[in-house]
């Protein structure tokens, strides 16, 4: 049985991300790419320090609207995206503006 990302070491997460990048290269359908990409960003989020993401305005990967981060819970950033008051993304998808 495969470990949860939260139980993996940094080396195991890096190995998982490498495998996911290879899967992305072989993915044939946009829906496949989307699922694999989300797994990649989730694994990557576990290698980051949530305290490095204070409240503020961020750019989200593949999203045009600015994301206003209110708080971080675990690896998930919660805030407002446009008219959506309860949006969340893995912290690995955020870039500070």
From TrEMBL:
InterPro entries: YfhH, YfhH-like. This is DUF1811 family protein. It comes from Paenibacillus ehimensis.
